[in-house]
Predict the 3D structure of the following.
Amino acid sequence: MDNYNKLKGFMIFDVLFTGLHDHGKKDDYYYISPHTSSVTLYSNQKDTHILFDTGSFFHRQKVIDGLAKHNLTPADITHVLMTHSHMDHTANCTMFENAETHINRSMLDHKDGICKIYPDLHAKPLPLDVEVFPTRGHTDDHVSYFVNYQGKRYCIAGDAIREDHFLNAPPEYFSFHQRFEFLESARHIFESCDVIIPGHYQIIDGKFKEKLYKKLLIHEKHMFNKLSVKDKIRHVTRKFITKKSSN
């Protein structure tokens, strides 16, 4: 992780902290603790300072301390780009009183209170050449962001990438369609970048990335084999149309 937290140059690209996620069950409820998303800073060290996700409320001080290492405060953040609306990713968004807050097709400017909604996600202006791509599955509103930095392509993936879902399997509470979307979104990420910064757990690259990708393909093949012939044809056709439209 240190290799990514200490990259130097005109731009700053720093994983302030990686996400935590542990869980269990007690009597009549399921619990998650500790629980926070990763938080990543991308800055031109001038007038544009971006945060990808904001972490959970109980990790607010970690966000402040991480920014302070770069001589920044929450008031300096100009853009907050969130991957999805779950609280462990969004709970601290109100800290950034001068920021534009982006989630999916929407953008809220904290300075004037105007919310803009862009029917075309890709038409929404994002700073510093950040790219956004819909990565449904974990949630319907989920997006992931891509950044090109010092010769590598990074994906701030949010919960579109969960290493435990590949090493084991997508959770049973996901519907069949949701699992399929999750795996399809994940495959796009794995095939489109060099380094993945997930919402939880360690940064993914190199041999570990290759290992997870192979696991993903096994899960995807297993689910594809469960489809009816009609659904298989529909799925392959949709993939072809999607790939053609993205070229």
